[in-house]
User: Fold this.
Amino acid sequence: MKYAGFTLIETMIVVVLLALCATATAPVFVSWRVRDQVDARTNALLGTLSYARSEAIRRKVRVSVCRIDAARHCLAAGKNCPSGRADWSCGWAVMAERAGASLLLRAQPAIDEIGVMSGLTALTFTPPAGQTIGSLRSFEIAPRVTTASMRGTGWRRCIRVAAGGRARVSDGACGAVS
Assistant:
């Protein structure tokens, strides 16, 4: 009587081949996930900037996008995020000025894995056309921890905000141009 099945050696060969495949593809999946997070954070900030500009035009009041703390209050210039970083990774909020007070319109939570660097602590859009106040209006989005496969500018995104308030995204680092 003959039994059908796999021998121990055949089973071990299949397990070794599966382990090799998993080892070879794991870095690709990690890199894909990080790139997806950078793109998602970039799109979130771009959407927030567009929303703030449109609300300044619609409400006819100044609308600001600022870094926030855990209580969703704007951080003062020179103050670090609760994580100790001086960037926008602690999240941001859209605030409308109304009768000397700030009204929270929208908030974006913190994501520590992705860094959002800018020389700005807040960006204000003014009515009637949603122009921006200030200079050096750029944001650079990049993974905080990079591996050998993630080196280079392909893992970075740059958002530049024109004086008219419109934002655009480009691949790579922002550099000296703003």
User: Anything to note?
Assistant: DSSP finds one helix and nine strands in the chain. The radius of gyration is 23 Å. The first helix runs from residue 8 to 59. The mean pLDDT is 86.
